[in-house]
Write a structure and sequence with these properties.
The complex is a heterodimer of chains A (about 240) and B (about 290). Chain A is of the alpha/beta class and about 240 residues long. Chain A is about 35% helix and about 25% strand. In chain A, the strands form two sheets. In chain A, strands 3, 6, 7, 8, 9, 10 and 11 form a seven-stranded mixed sheet that branches. A four-stranded antiparallel sheet of chain A has the order 2-1-4-5, covered by helices on one side. In chain A, a hairpin with a 2-residue loop joins β1 (about 5-15) and β2 (about 15-30). Chain A is globular and about 50 Å long. The relative contact order of chain A is 0.18. By secondary structure, chain B is mostly helical. Chain B has a domain at about 15-215. Chain B has helices at about 1-30, 35-50, 60-80, 90-110, 135-160, 160-170, 175-180, 185-210, 220-230, 235-255, 260-275; strands spanning about 115, 130, 135, 210. In chain B, strands 1-4 form a two-stranded antiparallel ribbon. Chain B has a two-stranded antiparallel ribbon with strand order 2-3. Chain B starts with a helix and ends in a 14-residue tail after the last helix. Classes of the chains: A alpha/beta (about 240), B mainly alpha (about 290). Chains A and B meet through α2 and α3 of A and α6 and α7 of B. Bound molecules: adenosine-5'-triphosphate and magnesium ion. The site of adenosine-5'-triphosphate has 13 residues of chain A, from β2 and α1.
Chain lengths: ~240, ~290
């Protein structure tokens, strides 16, 4: 399968703090790849850098063979990748529909209308509540909105940063079902999670991030990792 | 009584138009553009020159004033504030004060400190009789302009793509960027709109109070800033409400309490409002995220 995303020797710092220290990985078209790791391992930093919010200190990020270096942050989404950020970050004072419209900012009106139907298909809850102000939605609904909003840009690669954070188990299951649905409909997924059990059970492949570096002995097929003794001990609570 | 109320609403409408510029820029760039009042002054001078020296009709003069101020706003933002996007708010504030002094001194150099008498551009229009009180055409036009601006801005921010993008940027720049919104361009557009409005406010202010000096914009600027805070900084209806209330309080203070103390009364009311409701009358809490 073709590589949709390739990250090579990526370094990212916040001032003097080195958060990501030379990581390389790739995502193939049609896959669900997950990046797991403890708090502060550098997962969000990695996604935010790919999404253009942070500038890498060095390294290379290419999307569908094109080097993203030097592309302004707001142009990345137009290339065909979307980031659903940690903590949802929906526009609290805007309505559900307005949030979704913002997601389609780089698309034409006709494309937006068409995609809206697809998003409503995946998230019927959003359709019911399209006029509600986003800040008054429940946590789970806000997560759905954040994912729907990211989908509105018609990404070929969707990056999700801890979509299950702070949600009740039943909702977590629902969110993961939707992730699998999105993937079946043709969107490649790069998923960052602390809920390693869940993430590994839906992913094709996985990488484990430890203090800014990829643990080379724990990468590859998600099912194998799920069964691996080392991974179980470190990330799945024994 | 009625005459005072009308005067108050008229003055308040000018404050409201200026306050809109403050509030929009604050809402989106999260900065206090203290030079905003001086853009009003520039707007006044441009209109004055167009009419007095070039003999242009008032409509054209207003247009020229709006064009010049809009460009000035974009220029100020691009040269002075954009390089400071990631600087501390104190650095930005000091820069804004610097820009304010720069504009006042540039005006001093170009137009000298001699007071210019602004022509009454609405002299040919009839005034209105309202319950025994004469309402001057400038008053009517000021109030009308205020209402139109309010409606247009509300429609702009709720119905257009650019307007909605502005609201998104004002809430969360990072998330807005992830949507593909060009945050820098959005901020630039906001300055353009605010400065264009300042030009209109400048012409209306100078027509109602026809003395024009390099410091003409400073006091109305501070009052309008007060009005914006009073109504809830960042809120468009808040700026409108704050502006009008401030104008009315000021005129009533002058008429019934003391001419000298009227400004003190205005600020006292502001302090009381902020003590009771720190976010201003219509403001809500701003959560800033990076
Ligand atoms: N804005 C920032 N300024 C300074 N340091 C930061 C900043 N953001 C993150 N860091 C640091 O960078 C490192 C990686 O953080 P990051 O948010 O990428 O971790 P994470 O793997 O996403 O963690 P979590 O699972 O808690 O979300 C941490 O040590 C963190 O303290
Ligand atoms: Mg994180």
């Amino acid at each position: 399968m073709a590589e949709i995303l390739k990250v090579e020797d990526l370094h990212v710092s916040y001032g003097n703090i080195r958060a990501v220290k030379g990581i390389s990985f790739e995502v193939h078209e049609g896959e669900i790849v997950t990046l797991i790791g403890a708090n502060g391992a550098g997962k969000s930093t990695t996604l935010n850098t790919i999404g253009g919010l942070l500038k890498p200190r060095s390294g290379r990020i290419s999307f569908e063979g094109k080097d993203l270096h030097g592309l302004s942050a707001h142009k990345v989404v137009a290339e065909g990748m979307a980031l659903c950020p940690e903590g949802r970050r929906v526009f609290q004072q805007m309505t559900v529909l307005e949030n979704l419209e913002m997601g389609a900012y780089t698309r034409s009106k006709a494309e937006a209308d068409e995609t809206l139907e697809r998003v409503y298909g995946l998230f019927p809850r959003l359709k019911e509540r399209y006029r509600q102000v986003a800040g008054t939605l429940s946590g789970g609904e806000q997560q759905m909105l954040a994912m729907g909003r990211a989908l509105m840009s018609r990404p070929r690669l969707m990056m999700l940063d801890e979509p299950s954070m702070g949600l009740a188990p039943i909702l977590v299951q629902q969110i993961f079902d939707i992730i699998v649905d999105m993937n079946r409909q043709g969107t490649t997924i790069l998923l960052v999670e602390q809920n390693a059990q869940m993430a590994l059970s839906v992913a094709n492949r996985a990488y484990v991030l430890e203090t800014g570096k990829i643990n080379l002995s724990m990468q590859g097929d998600a099912e194998d990792l799920l069964r691996s003794e080392a991974v179980r001990k470190a990330y799945l609570g024994g | 009584m009625l005459a005072n109320l009308i005067n108050g609403i008229s003055l308040g409408s000018v404050y409201a138009i200026i306050a809109l510029g403050y509030t929009m820029v604050y809402g989106i760039a999260k900065m206090l553009n203290f030079a905003h009042g001086d853009v009003i002054m520039v707007g006044g001078y441009v209109a004055f020159c167009s009419i007095t020296y070039l003999g242009w009709p008032p409509v054209l003069a207003v247009l020229a004033s709006v064009v010049v101020c809009t460009m000035l706003g974009i220029l100020i933002e691009g040269l002075a504030y954009k390089p400071l996007r990631n600087a501390t708010s104190l650095a930005v504030l000091i820069t804004a004060i610097g820009v304010s002094y720069f504009l006042q001194n540039a005006a001093l150099l170009i137009w000298t400190s001699n007071t210019k008498v602004f022509p009454n551009i609405f002299a040919n229009l009839p005034s209105l009789k309202l319950g025994g009180t004469q309402v001057a055409p400038v008053t009517l036009i000021t109030v009308f302009a205020n209402i139109v601006i309010m409606i247009v801005l509300t429609l702009f921010t709720t119905k257009t793509k650019m307007g909605k993008a502005m609201r998104a940027v004002s809430e969360d720049k990072g998330a807005a960027t992830l949507m593909g919104i060009n945050v820098n361009r959005t901020i630039s557009v906001t300055f353009a709109i605010g400065s264009g409005l300042a030009a209109i406010a400048g012409v209306l202010l100078c027509t109602a109070y026809p003395t024009l000096m390099p410091t003409t914009g400073a006091m109305p600027g501070i009052k309008a800033f007060t009005a914006a805070v009073f109504g809830g900084i960042g809120s468009i209806p808040g700026a409108m409400l704050g502006g009008i209330l401030l104008g009315v309080i000021e005129i009533f203070g002058k008429a019934y309490i003391s001419t000298q103390l009227s400004d003190a009364i205005v600020f006292a009311v502001l302090i009381i409002v902020l003590l009771v409701k720190p976010t201003g009358l219509l403001g809500h809490k701003v959560n800033e995220k990076v």
